[in-house]
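WARN no homologs supplied; continuing
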Amino acid sequence: MADKTVDKVVDDLMNAWTEFKDTNEANEKRRDTLLDDKLTRLNKVMDTAEGLNQRLTAAEKSAKAVEEVQEQMDRIEATMNRASLGGVDDPTKRKEAVNNWARGVISAYSLGEANLPENQRKALASAKAYYDSLGVSGDNTGGYLAPVEFVREIIKGVTEISAPRSLVRVRPIAGKAYMQPKRTGQATARRVVDQGNRSETDGLRYGSVEINAPEMYALIDISQQNLEDSAFDLEAEIRDEATEQFAVLEGSEFVFGSGVGEMEGVLVNDKVGETVSGAATAVTADGLLTLKHDIKTAYARNATFILNRTTLGSIRKLKDSTGQYLWMPGIAQGKPNSIDGDPYMEVPNMPIEAAGAFPVAYGDFKRAYTMADRITMQMLRDPYTQATNGNIRFLFRRRTGGQIVLAEAIRKLKCAAA
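OK structure emitted
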């Protein structure tokens, strides 16, 4: 049944896209309000496929993340060897246990631990039993692993609501902040003649990036009788509500956050470069193509556009200098839809096209932006504070932060003529 539903979505998208192109061609020759209305209607039809497309894009990003994890498995295995995971001393069995553990961690993120094969569940339990004996005060002695239960339960819900988490690098942390060394200057190589003097090629400098994890909260009062008499699991419902509200705030801060007591927004950081669109109040094809080529090739290989759905509707009408549409459907071939061959993610908080606005950003967000999760979710059930009013208070809190760590990896498009 699911396959039939997906096939219908794909068929509707392709049919609408064919009709959209024909209508747009006619509208370019003679402007007509009826044709404009038809384009709007067809855009809405194609928007119905965006949910599937966003999941496909997120899956592609997750696949790349899995590849990164796979590259680190040798180092993980070396660490586990010292611990003799779960008492396994045989090298072959130990390697199998490590492999089951790593795959279990990845699969638990997307499927949930309850849906894992038995061997992966056992491997996770064995590893957890070992690391429970370690401390969380030091990252290398278990600090990064201590909040695994929270991350596995909550981030899955957040990812389904907020696109940024599937784009950026997310780091669980065990302290109040996340700190990473950063190169801030480079030395320049020089030539020298035979037996010539060699002076120092000064310029190599290092600094550090620190990401704090400030708190966000949601406070909800529910009457005792409502909890007792409701046909629903209200505690589960309000937990979902809190998760959604955290995601809404997180998505807003990812775009516009000040960085002071909250996440830093990609459109706020003054080190993020900008490209003008070439039109005072709109996105243009030339502007998008220039934006793509204004970042370094290494970042373009894993780059993604972010924009809202209204801007996407405008981009579907744009063509390059050869008359080819920049937006192309890809889900019929099992690939994400694309803008000039690159994937995109809908971020509802991105601004619409307007004079001086930044409706589109582009780049390798995983290298450019890091989020730090200190506490992904805590719930306090307080039956005392509101007892005289017959209420029970639920306090949810998270500690998470995020900021630009490599501004040159992304750029933003500004609506401006020059």
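Residues 50-83 form the longest helix (34 residues).
OK
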